[in-house]
Amino acid sequence: MNIDIREIPFSRFGSYFCISKEKDSEEVYIRDVHGGDDAPSRLFKIEVFVNGQQKEYITVATESSVKFCVKDDTERYAEMIIPEEDELHIEVNGLELSLKPNNGKYDSFMELEEDKYEYHIYSKELKLMLLKLSGSMRVEAPWDIIGNKYINILLQNGHFVLQSYRTVCKEKQYVDFKQGKENVQHLFDKWMQEMGGGYIGNEYKPSLEKAAYITWANMVHPEGILSDYAMYMSKLWMYNIWSWDNCFGALGLAEKNPELAFSQLDIFFKTQDDSGAYPDFVNDKFVSYNCIKPPIFLYTYEKLMEMNDYFKDEKRLRKVYESSKKVMDYFEQYRTDEGRLPHYKHGNDSGWDNASLFHKGMPVEAPDLTSFLIRSFDILSTFAQILGEKEESSKYKDKANTLYEILMERLYDEKGFFGRYGKNAEIIEKRSSLILRLPVIIGYRFERKIMDAIVADLEEHFEAKYGLATERLDSPDYKENGYWLGPIWAPVTYLFIDSLKSYGYEEAARRLSNKFLDLTLQGGMAENFDPLTGKGLVDTSFAWTSSVFLLLLKEKVLEG
Predict the structure, then answer these.
(1) Is 459 contained in some domain?
(2) Could you give the number of structural domains in the chain?
(3) What is the per-residue pLDDT for 517?
(4) Which of 186, 203, 237 represents a domain boundary (last residue)?
(5) Roughly how many angstroms between the first and final C-alpha of the chain, as a whole number?
(6) By CB neighbour count within 10 A (0-12 exposed, 13-18 middle, 19+ buried), where does 57 fall?
(7) Where in the sequence is the domain holding 31, given as residue range(s)?
(8) Whole-angstrom Cα distance, residue 243 to residue 212?
(9) Is residue 447 part of a domain?
(10) Any idea what DSSP says for residue 151?
(11) pTM exceeds 0.85
(12) Most buried residue, 249, 304, 342, 476, by CB count within 10 Å?
């Protein structure tokens, strides 16, 4: 693989280290994603010198290493690998590699032994050990009362290690550079076979390689609040595990890595608030409840059970069931006013941050939220039957039926679904967002004419060259690169494809699936895409996009 580190950071499974190039300045940094996306991530700016003269360099990155070669003399290079999750190794040949941190007020870089330096980074609550295994290391780090005035590091002709830790650096044996590189390659090859085995010969090979690499490299190891390995959405900008997003990662992992798939959900079970709400996101340091996403875990788990018998285990099912009951109680008790349907308090609650449905104000009664709740109650009823909870099964089926009746009374008319907003629950006249078509997830409850009307609406007003735009293509609110005001998003695409396929619209589902697979060849594994050109937008190394691609590719191959 040839990885463009402006688009996809170089990293590896389990590591918080990554290396990326700034898109504007072209500067390259060794980075660290501890602390989530609100924490500073840059550790060291990379520069290359030969005989004291700064040189331009070219970057060559693969799944196992990233190499910086002098532009006019490629035999001179510095190469980096991450052979262990907490170790970054550097091999330098024929040049001086400069590592320049932008150290903060109290940050301190000190020599503990000959050629062994410890770096305390206060803003990240992180420590790094830099040591020389061979070669030459020159350091300038003059002290100024409470920290270093500046820090300059030059590495030359040898093997060096950068190790991260919270408190104490434990002594260990470091692997030979060549062997370390081979070990990483072996790990990725195994992952590639698990995630894409059998598909690699088809026309989607470039997308498959990217998707496999991103789902592998976006993993971080358990630490702090994180109870298990977590698939971050990205190591470029959005480095947390997010509720909702985690479900699509779990689906992508289910067949070959069921334990890891379950962990993506379990992280949220373990951080569930006493109110019943799941966090919006979790990282090693923080749990955020600013936004509460609609309930999708039960939908996900039902699909996981179809994919792998591992998820049918009674203890796991019981854990999902009991946790989900609390989630449903949360929406009933804290998000539902008397005589109304559950509401969002911000567009971010829905995941559709700036969708046109939310332009009038808050709170918003939205048909997608109620539909997710109906689907969840229906699944709870089924799970209760499996677990022998007959009374609860009947109770949850009744709740689903009641919500459905209110949904059709309050948020549906002959023109389709709509929302209500504010303390007086006024009707939102604007109906141009794709979110108002998400009730397709309960298509099994609708009369055929309702589903026919939704599908016709999708095809006439939302379906573009590369898939479903999130705002009507003829809407005055449609914006190029408008986030949820037009661009295509992978998880939403998956929900529509899955629903259409399940409820009798196989041709439309197949067409949208093929469009999305083709889209990745044009726009990569971006956070979202221009529906007309296919250009990848915003964050270009997204795990949920990669997971959805892998799911749809597998389905296409199995269908022949």
Answers:
(1) yes
(2) 2
(3) 97
(4) 186
(5) 27
(6) buried
(7) 17-186
(8) 21
(9) yes
(10) -
(11) yes
(12) 249
